[in-house]
Amino acid sequence: MNLNEQICLMGKKRDASKVEPLVNCIVDAILDKKGKEVTSLEIGKLPNAICDYFVVCHADSTTQVNAIAENVEIKVREKLSEKVWKSAGYDNSIWIVLDFVNVVVHVFQTESRDFYKVEKLWADAPTKHYTDEPTIIEPVSKTKSTKKTVKK
Q1: Which residues have CB under 8 Å from 51's CB, separation 6+?
Q2: In this structure, CATH architecture of domain 14-130
Q3: 98-127: per-residue pLDDT in tens?
């Protein structure tokens, strides 16, 4: 891809009806490889936003960071026939960035996520947290009432 094609692509916005399925596919691919604290940030309506969404997660090893990023690329290509526009960070797998134009994926090693705090930089953005853990329903004791809260 030459420079003119890259500049044209940077100005393009994906149809909004295609962005949500892309985010969902990315999240599913991350959860398949046990990515931790998966979060999407809807930054598109904020001033100076570079895309519509950030999807952020972390893992405890560089091997897992690499596996998560590779799985995202594979699943998006298989399910949506889309390729990553640009990627960076595969050389050390401490922080891999995958740019799908309207959605940018950040896969961190745990310490790097704690250090860079990307979510705090975009704290005004609406966030959504994802988990693949099953909801455990505890039996209600007759003497004690309990409430189960769900994190949104």
Answers
A1: 43, 44, 99, 101, 102, 103, 104
A2: 2-Layer Sandwich (3.30)
A3: 999 999 999 999 999 999 999 999 999 999
